[in-house]
């Protein structure tokens, strides 16, 4: 597909559909990821919400312009980040969900996370082209994965009508590295990590979030539903939603 052909809406939609299906199938083929997705789906039904939503991560979607080009194009290769999905429990019911969020009536004006989707997870396959040291993911890439997972919180809530459409930017991102985040090899294939992001506090246009990066303990299978995962890195951040220009 040529660059010009790739940018037509029909071709982009088909490319995104194929990639989403391929990525979901890939993670479902890995026992600990499949168990995690099933476990999360079961948990989602107990939280007054619908079943699990599993999608291609928003920043992975190919667009006719170069928005999100880092994740959708630059790192979207077999030896960098070949597979990447987002999943979360269904949108919580809310009496205000039928109306558009406003400065005075939306949940963020009340300083509470009630009514939001407060937890989003991503599964990411890491190849050797994101190495810092050999076999270890570059720290800047790890921070990018955390920032991306946190950003999915806003994408999901915007789509659900829980958040105004204005852009949200990272105010700060403090990261703690606890253990190496392992990458895969050209022959052995990528390694996989789980990133879990949570919305912790909302005050006006400021959003406090936390996230953890986890991987299989000692390179093992991570157990049933991801119970064998260990924490590799964690972060806390504040995001700020900017006002639309008049």
Automatic annotation (TrEMBL):
- Disordered: region residues: 92-113
Q: SUPFAM superfamilies recorded for this chain?
A: Thioesterase/thiol ester dehydrase-isomerase
Which portions of the chain have biased composition (kind: Low complexity)?
92-107
Under the heading CDD domains, the entry gives: PaaI_thioesterase (cd03443)
> Which positions fall inside the Thioesterase domain?
135-184
Organism the protein comes from? Cladorrhinum samala
Task: Write down what this protein is called.
Answer: Acyl-coenzyme A thioesterase THEM4
What is the superkingdom listed in this entry's lineage? Eukaryota
The cross-references to Pfam families, in alphabetical order and at most eight, read: 4HBT
InterPro entries, per the entry: HotDog_dom_sf, PTE-AB_protein, Thioestr_dom
């Amino acid at each position: 597909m040529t660059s010009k052909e790739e940018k037509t809406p029909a071709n982009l939609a088909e490319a995104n559909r194929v990639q989403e299906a391929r990525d979901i199938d890939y993670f479902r083929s890995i026992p600990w990821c499949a168990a995690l997705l099933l476990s999360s789906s079961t948990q989602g039904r107990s939280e007054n919400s619908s079943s699990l939503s599993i999608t291609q991560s928003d920043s992975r979607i190919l667009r006719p312009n170069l928005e999100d080009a880092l994740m959708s194009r630059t790192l979207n290769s077999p030896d960098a980040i070949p597979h990447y999905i987002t999943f979360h429990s269904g949108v919580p019911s809310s009496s205000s969900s039928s109306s558009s969020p406003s400065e005075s009536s939306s949940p963020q004006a009340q300083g509470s996370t009630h009514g939001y989707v407060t937890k989003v997870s991503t599964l990411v396959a890491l190849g050797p082209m994101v190495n810092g040291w050999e076999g270890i993911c570059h720290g800047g890439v790890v921070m990018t994965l955390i920032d991306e997972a946190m950003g999915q919180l806003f994408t999901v809530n915007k789509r659900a009508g829980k958040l105004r459409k204005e852009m949200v930017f990272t105010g700060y991102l403090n990261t703690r590295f606890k253990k190496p985040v392992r990458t895969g090899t050209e022959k052995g294939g990528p390694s996989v990590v789980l990133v879990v992001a949570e919305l912790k506090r909302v005050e006006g246009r400021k959003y406090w979030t936390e996230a953890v990066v986890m991987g299989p303990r000692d390179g093992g299978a991570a157990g049933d539903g991801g119970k064998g995962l260990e924490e590799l890195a964690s972060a806390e951040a504040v995001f700020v939603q900017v006002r639309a220009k008049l």
